[in-house]
Amino acid sequence: MLEESGSEGPVGIGSGVAGPDIGVLSAARADTPRPMMVLNGVSKSFGQMQALSQVDLEIYAGEVHVLLGENGAGKSTLIKTLAGIYAPDAGEILLDGNRLALGGPSDARRAGISVIHQELALVPHLTVEENIVLGREPRFLIPGSIDRRVQRETARRALELVGFDGDPRGKVANLTTARQQLVEIAKALAHRSRILVMDEPTASISERDATNLHAIIGDLKRRGVAIVFISHRMREVFELADRVTVLRDGRKILTTLPDATTPELLIKAMVGRSVGSFYQRLERFVAGEVILETRALCSAAGLVDMNIVVRSGEIVGLAGLVGSGRTEFARAVFGLDRRTGGDVLLHQLPLPSDPVRAVRSGIAFVPESRKEHGLALTKSVCDNLTLPALWKIFPHGFRSRRRAAGVARGLIERLRIATRSTRQPVRTLSGGNQQKVVIGKWLPIEGNRRLIIIDEPTRGIDVGAKAEILKLIEGLAAEGCGILMISSELPEVVGFCDRVYVLQSGTVRGELSGAHLTEEAIMKLAVHHDS
Amino acid sequence: MTETTEMPAIRTFRSDAGAPLDPELRSIIARFVVLAVLCAGVALLNENFLSVANFTNVLRQASLLFLIAAGATLVIIAGAIDLSVGAILTLSACVAAGVIHATGSSGLGIATALAIGISAGLANGILVAGLRLPPFLVTYGMLWILSGGALYYMGGIPITGFPREFRFLGSGFLLGIPVPILIMIATALAGSVVLHMTTVGQQMVMMGANRAAATLAGIPVRRNLICVYVASGACAGLAAVVALGRVNSADPGMGDPLLLPSIAAILVGGTSLFGGTGTLLGTALGALLLTIVLNAMNLLTIGSAWQPFATGIVLVGAMLADAFLNRRRS
């Protein structure tokens, strides 16, 4: 599709004359083996969390550089730093040997760095052409006007490079994800990008589209574009990569040639860390009767034939990469996403798809993002702590403030929530204490055979609160509740859960327990081996 | 906030004694103070202000403003908005007037006004909660539809003259107190009980503060949305009965001048347009404040051209004062 490399001429926006020729770049690379971009000791922290520490990285023209790592290993922070979204706390980024100061995403784009995020960033209501020139529209005579002819020509050339076969004047909203990706790549090329960063581009497109994308990446590579590629599909990594870098806990673990390694070694590098510092279970409980059972559950959010069983007294983990369907499963059981097939049985009885009924049948759902879904931040600790149990605390429908405050006080003492009064807005509490409120509000709905779904219970909170929260969850299991815990922290999953389902692409890929429950085993099931 | 350090030790926590007052209580007290200062100031400048005749008049005007804003306050607290209250009042009043003239029955007239208010509220609620359409658009569209309905129904001729027993609700006296004021007090009390002393009221507040969190807590968000819209429609229907009784005439433009002042009263009363905070007492105080400011301008013979200006100053002033007080607290 791109045979006449170099002779094609520039695809840059503007006069149509100037701009570095993509073909020339590849010639330049042959002569100079100097890296196009160098990261020296780049660090970035958010509060107490060190997202990146001392990362060194070299990126060469015309290479595909794959970044590997678990959820939270620092990949996203790294590419957001490259994109100019985050400014590093320490370290420097060199482009062609010159220090690069990225004040924002527009600086990165001007420097020739384009990032294609997992959530595509096209404007859905504009046409393909308009999206490609967006922000750098060719001017027609007077400022504010757009030269449609130049726009069309620029878009046509860029689209040709990526083999886009759709209508350039159609709206982006009507395109498939794969086609939208091509438009994003074309946009990057039209902006004369020399470094293309792609965050899991093949995670949400079909096999055929992925193969097509691989071919396009091959072409771009030959034209001297450097490609930084995040993927969890092992086969893809070994097919595409010129070099692979593994990140873990914000550090670069290694950079290697694919020929010099194996999938097993890479997975080990991704997970290998001391397990000792994490919370260990005090005791294990004998699993009792079945509390939750799903049979071939499918949902509009992409679940396919999910079969999961949770028993009384059991802590069951749901592991998998971001987007594997863990939260979607919780949402489908709770009745937040439309179910499209299969059955959900609670205590052997069908559970209708309705959050109100789910709560009344004793299900608790602690969501992942406590600020968006867990808390009414402006309201008081008391208001938040009594919300899901209003019907239980005040069965006749009349609410007394004193009674509500009493219930809240009991929970504050039991969970050791650090707050000055029941009237303090939850907004002012620390992350760990907020998380205690999000979990604690379910406690007044008593019952020892309840299903408790907890999504990422320890994310973004400090170590002390983490241990307290895990202990609380263990206590609920001891009372006979069935716990379904979603977590991206593999050591936590391995050390804390009795049994773990590993999800991938919206379905259960395997079930691990006992001696088989290891971080390596989970990662092996979680990543795509065969694609 | 994500990574705030824990407090070194958990403070022993016994009671809320000494804890800061509820922000809502604080805002009500502040409004009472402003209202008292305003009344005292105007009374010093003009001796007619505190006369029974003038004050009754002020309260009557404020009561109509409050009635139309009361239900809409609940809608805003629950995180939505109702722009159709003025149009609901118009249509309810016009059709009720027609029914009274055709049948001679006051009771049927009142029933008609309330039924139209409730039906319009139900329609709003179903469109917003059931079909998940944006509240602003639904109720703005409803405004035009209901106004159009009233225009068509009246055919350009106002209906005037109603039986005495019907006008009692708008212009009568009970124990020496104008009936609309009694209706205002009863509505404010009933609404406050629902909002502050029932679980449903608390649910409305919480879903206004964070709809997603309320849904995940098993709150019947959609049912509650329908309820607040029905309440808003019913209040507008009740306001129509009071307005008809007072002006003794129905015309298809009578509700239009009430919509924007009613929203102003709600906001001056301390209810957040973003939902999750607000009180009916606040709306009552807001309606009183706005009415008294305009009344004082009349008494002090300040040209009526300045009245919208004054309303705007009161509105922005209230917002600024709240923002200033809240900032100082935190």
If you had to describe this structure to a student in words, what would you say it looks like?
- The complex is a heterodimer of chains A (531) and B (330).
- Chain A is of the alpha/beta class.
- Chain A has 3 domains: 61-86 and 103-269, P-loop containing nucleotide triphosphate hydrolases (Rossmann fold, 3-Layer(aba) Sandwich); 274-362 and 448-531, 3-Layer(aba) Sandwich (Rossmann fold); 376-446, no CATH class.
- Chain A contains 19 helices and 22 strands.
- Chain A has a 6-stranded mixed sheet, sandwiched between helices.
- Helices cover 73% and strands 2% of the residues of chain B.
- Chain B contains 13 helices and 4 strands.
- A two-stranded antiparallel sheet of chain B has the order 1-4.
- The relative contact order of chain B is 0.18.
- Classes of the chains: A alpha/beta (531), B mainly alpha (330).
- At the A-B interface, helix 11, helix 12, helix 15 and helix 16 of A face helix 8 and helix 9 of B.
Short description:
The complex is a heterodimer of chains A (531) and B (330). Chain A is α/β, with parallel strands linked by helices and 531 residues long.
Largest pleated sheet of chain B: 2 strands, antiparallel
Indicate the percent of residues in helices of chain A: 25-40%
Task: Indicate the percent of residues in helices of chain B.
Answer: over 70%
Number of separate helices of chain B: 13
- Span between N and C termini of chain B? 14 Å
Element pattern of chain B in H and E:
HHHHHEHEEHHHHEHHH
CATH C-level class of the largest domain in chain A is Alpha Beta
Question: What portion of the residues of chain B fall into strands of 2 or more residues?
Answer: under 5%
Q: Compute the average pLDDT of chain A.
A: 84
Strand order of the largest sheet of chain B: 1-4
Total number of strands of chain A: 22
